[in-house]
Amino acid sequence: MAQYTGVAVSPGRVVGTIRTMAPPVAEPPVTEKLPEGADPAVEAERIPAAAAAVQAALVRLAERASGDGKKILEATAQMAADPSLTQTAQGFVLSGGKSPARAVWEAGDQVATMLEGLGGYMAERATDVRDVRARIVAELRGEQAPGIPGLEEPFILTAIDLAPADTATLDPQRVIALVTSDGGPQSHTAILARQLGLPAIVAAKSIHEFADGTEVFVDAGLGTITDEVTEEHHRFAEAWTELQKNPLTYEGGGGVLEDGTRVQLLANIGNAADAEKAAAANADGVGLFRTEFLFLDREDEPSVEEQTAAYSAAFAHMAGKKVVVRTIDAGADKPLPFLTDADEPNPALGVRAYRTSWEKRSVLTNQLDAIAAAAKQSEATPWVMAPMISTVTETEDFAALCRERGLEPAGIMVETPSAAITADRQLAVCDFASIGTNDLTQYTMAADRQLGSLAHLNNPWQPAVLALVRATCAGARVAGGDPEAFGEKANKPVGVCGEAAGDPGLAVVLVGLGVNSLSMTPRSLPAVAKVLSTVTLEQAKELAAKAVAARTAEDANHVVRAGLPILGQLGL
Q1: Of the given ranges (72-81, 329-338, 520-529), which has the lowest mean pLDDT?
Q2: Where is 176: in which H helix or E strand?
Q3: For labelling, which of 1, 66, 332, 464 has a CA lying 20 to 30 Å from the CA of 403?
Q4: DSSP character for 37?
Q5: What ranges in 97-187 are assigned the alpha helix state H?
Q6: Which among 188, 233, 317, 456 is annotated as catalytic?
Q7: Given a cut of 90, is residue 114 above it in pLDDT?
């Protein structure tokens, strides 16, 4: 028997056969030249022909895809036809005598490096360029293109990680679970798996020890994979399969605990289309409106009028409900040329989010003006919060800017340990707090959340992170004047809008720690509501205390799951 562990990113339990994604295309040797006697012109012409074949294959995949996956594939197909890649590669053949495969490899590196230097959205496209480069090289060699195995029977996909074009073609009818040896909780692979409701584990370093074709049991709630498949494992998997056939429904009105205690269940959005989906899923409102998507991929700041229109369009789907708007969270992995410094040695600890207002005040004040204007045109109730707050002085400054514009409630995001520890003083000068567990985990564990090698540290089940959530809630109760207040009775409410809120088991812990609202992808709402309905507030508090007292993140997860039999019954 062998059992391997990774980081759970999307719950579910399945039994199935492992099928391994083909390894990455090997880099052609640096010394690889044209064969003796080969005509450079003829060899150079093979490159655009191979690129055209790759483009055609990607177009065919796009035709079978939908939504975001279709858009990704269409964009990648366009990149395959980009003459900046093929012409550069042809030049390497004609002038340097390189083989077509080596020429394409070097040209791809050159284009990708150029895009990375531009930063922001363009830097993210570098991954796509390298993916296209590998596909063209495979075509030139007559090898199978990298990608998901084209099998008809369902299987568990194992891979080092997935390229955007791979995730876009991921069919949950065939791929019943996903396990990668690289990646992290915030990788595009993890995000897509959560959107699809696909059981997924990342950073399972030893997963490739299993031979292709091995039958395994994947517990994507615990983050474990084992090849000793028992009858109990089959029962768990059957429960998950049944859940997919008869998915849980969520009627709205909050998460109601067994004793009648209510917890608001909200949705995370980035634009009006997301808001429409959240409304269709009966979310009680929006717990995180990521406004920076309006600012990305542009050289200058959007006008107040443009921002007002975008916010109004999102608010229109949430009439009578609250929409928690996060002001621009630029910097770190979201650089903006007109606002952030691309040369900072450590951007995650640099001038990002609220801190950008220290030098460029107008970007924040313009955004607040736009939110205020949109609020006057809408029946939604905007709650505005600033990200990356560390001191009470910062909170006072932001709250004053909001109140000058009639934007109340005004709050902060708790993403730094300093904000969590001083929550009593922070909440004394603002109206609410929302915990961003993704960044709070990163800063608590001193582990860059973009690095797959640190994924085991970037786990919201870490007892240290849970202790800071508890400290935030305790501070908010003190600031609100009633240490025992909860839910609608809390004068200074605390929500969670990080990915942790969508984990049904962790949602129980967060409520037990004192969190009043949970915000997640709309797909997670039914499972979270169902699991919350099986516990009382006192039981949630007991499980939360055990989690905080646990030795490790794994121990915390295990002890809570042991106290929530509903997770096993649902196959979660």
Answers
A1: 329-338
A2: strand 175-180
A3: 332
A4: T
A5: 100-118, 120-141, 164-168
A6: 188
A7: no
Cα gap 90→96, rounded to integer Å: 10
How far apart, in whole angstroms, are the C-alpha atoms of residue 227 and residue 3? Answer: 7
Polymer length in residues for the chain: 572
Whether the bond between 409 and the residue before it is cis, its omega within 30 degrees of 0, is yes
Mean of pLDDT values over 457-470:
95
For residue 235, count CB atoms less than 10 angstroms from its CB and return exposed for 0-12, middle for 13-18, buried for 19 or more: middle
Q: Tell me if 526 sits within 8 A of 251, measured CB to CB.
A: no
Give Cα 353 to chain centroid, integer Å.
18
Beta-carbon-side half-sphere exposure of residue 160 (alpha carbons within 13 Å): 7
Distance CA 402, CA 357 (A): 14
Which letter does DSSP use for residue 152 in this model? S
Query: Rounded distance, CA 162 to CA 198, Å?
Result: 14
User: What are the backbone dihedrals phi and psi of residue 87, each rounded to the nearest 5 degrees, phi first?
Assistant: -70, -40
> Is 497 annotated as catalytic?
yes
Q: What percent of the chain has pLDDT over 90?
A: 65
402, 430, 473, 497: which one is catalytic? 497
Beta strands in 275-370 (DSSP E): 285-290, 322-326
Per residue in 190-217, pLDDT tens?
877 887 889 999 989 999 999 999 999 9
Q: How far is CA 455 from CA 11, 183, 445, 559, in A?
A: 16, 7, 11, 21
Q: State the Cα–Cα distance between residues 324 and 342, nearest whole angstrom.
A: 29
> Both tokens of residue 241?
């399969």
| Three-state DSSP string of 433-463 | EEECHHHHHHHHHCCCCCCHHHCCCCCCCCH
Residue 364 to residue 353: CA distance in whole angstroms: 10
Is position 188 annotated as part of the catalytic site? yes
Helix pair 504-513, 525-532: axis angle to 10 deg: 60
- What is the identity of the amino acid at 164? P
Identify the residue with better confidence: 537 or 331.
Answer: 537
Report how far Cα 344 is from the mean position of its chain's Cα atoms: 24
- Residues 402 and 368: their CA atoms lie apart, in Å, by 7
Instruction: Annotate 144-177 with b (16+ C-beta within 10 A) or e (fewer).
Output: ebbbbeeeeebbbbbbebbbbbbbbbbeeebbbb
Residue type at 564 in one-letter notation: L
CA distance 296 to 292: 6
Residue 169: band (very low, low, confident or very high) from pLDDT cuts 50, 70, 90:
confident
